[in-house]
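User: Please predict the structure of the protein below. I'd like the answer in structure-token form so I can feed it into my own downstream comparison script.

Assistant: Understood. Taking the following sequence of 424 residues as input:
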Amino acid sequence: MSLHTESHRVDGHDVHEHVLTVPLDHRGSDLGSIEVFAREYVRDGQRDAPRLVFFQGGPGNPANRPEVVGGWLERALEEFRVVLLDQRGTGRSTPLDRQSLAEVGSPADQARYLRHFRADSIVADAELLRLALGDDTWAALGQSYGGFCLTTYLSQAPQGLREVFITAGLPGIATTADDVYRATYAQTAVRNAEFFARYPRDLGVAQAVADHLEQQEELLPSGERFSARRFATIGIALGQVSGFDALHFALEDPFTTVGGQRRLRERFLLAMGNRLSFAAHPLYAVVHESIYAQGAATNWAAQRVRAEFPEFDLSGGFAFTGEHVYPWQFEEDPALVPLRGAADLLAADADLPPLYDADVLAGNTVPVAAAVYVEDMFVPYAFSRATAAAIRGARTFVTNEYQHDGLRMDGRRLLDVLFGLARR
């Protein structure tokens, strides 16, 4: 294990860029090593402050790259040195995509490799980074999937944590992928109803786009075919408070006439391509269901469970889907096509180990404060409440003021609330 750090200055902050070499497999098998990257912000006057490590949402997304220091980061820097961790496989942490995975070998080799990119491995990376930086303990903040990682952290390495803050990210510790998707489809149906109640015209527009795509071939700017079922997946935006208006604006004027034929506008196709492509974060699609796997195969749960909700059957009407990944996306998205074999094998893997330890959580001694959103479309409220009750001493801020992006929209206030809860 080796740590390399380079530093520069940004607007009253020292910024340290850390690169740490870690084992691919923390359980001891000799599968080689990868690199983990983290960017640390230290405000002038805070060089002796404790560290706080941030776990980004996802899975498969790198830590944010702030162009300006504001929002939750600005608030956190008043008390901490803040470490923005690129979880393994993302950003500068030995990133995974169709190019790098091709070097791993066959689909079976790739699936075995991907087993090492779940929360348990991410937490083990963080622990090695903490030790390399010389910290006895550090605080941690997790948004969405970052909160899942912190629940794993509390389960397997609580000795490294001094305080834990979670926003929109308390997972069900004993739930299956099927349980999660039944809950998220139900909430996605609610958000569809709310969206179309606010913008009644948009239902007809969305239906017209879907019908058009069933009858007329349209290509995205990248050259790939644009399908109706893929169009429906832009409903992931409904899980964010800012997503309602953004989705409405995207549907403003999708059609034009070319040579007497109705076609989709070029700017609409460009916007759809940007929303739909997994090229920037293919790991999200490949490992998404595996974050819910604990000793049982997921077997493409989102696809199976969807059949229980007829409102999402596009043959009988139209509804947007949400944070759901389907096997057919590995046929339609060029960034995912080469990864289909590995994704199928990962979905069939029944031996992925548990990520949470109920006994350890029941005896927890780390201060934990979590923001739980009643109407969260991605992290079901009932499961979050049950997990909060299962973590000894955990305190919650339960609210319907926010959607899943509350930390981004109102981070300073949320951190004020969570800091106060944890230290009460």
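That's the full token string. The mean pLDDT is 96.
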